[in-house]
Amino acid sequence: MRFFLKSSCLVSSCLLLLALRLPELRAEETPAAILEHTRSVYAALTSYSDTGTLLNEYGPASHDEYSFATYFTRAPRHFMFDYRKPSDRIVIWGDPDAFHVWWKATGQVSEYPNPKNTGALTLNEYPTSGAITKIPPLLYSKAGLAGAIPNFEPERLAGMEDVAGNKCYRLEGTTSDAYAQTGKKVDARNVTVWIDSTSYLVRKILEDRPAVPGTLNRITTTFNPQANPKLNDDSFKFAPPK
After folding, report:
1. Which residue from 57, 106, 115, 158 has the least number of CB within 10 angstroms?
2. Could you tell me the residue range of the domain that residue 43 belongs to?
3. C-alpha distances in angstroms, 40 versus 43, 49, 117, 174, 200?
4. pLDDT at 29
């Protein structure tokens, strides 16, 4: 009996200590907490760069693959996004005075002077298959830009997975777009986000839209991100071809 009581006390003590620690552990690893940590990391970066690919899968078995690169500094304010298709290219770059967009298909440059410069990003969501509204809204967090991650509603932490040799949280949930005037949500879709468990930078985003049975409507965007890299002025120079 004494042994039983002592063992029971020991087990009870262990359970109590575990119970006291569980809320803290769960709070740190909830999907919402992980996503909020990621948002705060991007908002605090002084500089950022990445290279990435976007895989667009559609129909029974069709797919297109594009590449992009992003460069950003907060002070001085500079931005560069270079999106490349096999036969097309879109370059969006920003300086302290304005944002500029060059599209190879039209050969023209569009200007977006401050302070009304957000159209350089939002109006090019479709031409870039959504690539421009993945990471830049996180970097410019105060602008309130929409995008797959800003509108992401994580529902579960589906474990840990490796992405290009990096241990990542796998968050699953939904996202959608919304009309600014009415707030009505459109283009609802399932989203999976892989967030680096060390840097809390986004390494992969999978968007799965409703599709006709037997077909796909899926976009997978992968990133090789760098937090606070040293960037020189050449990273932000672009001369539109004549």
Report:
1. 115
2. 32-226
3. 5, 17, 23, 20, 9
4. 81
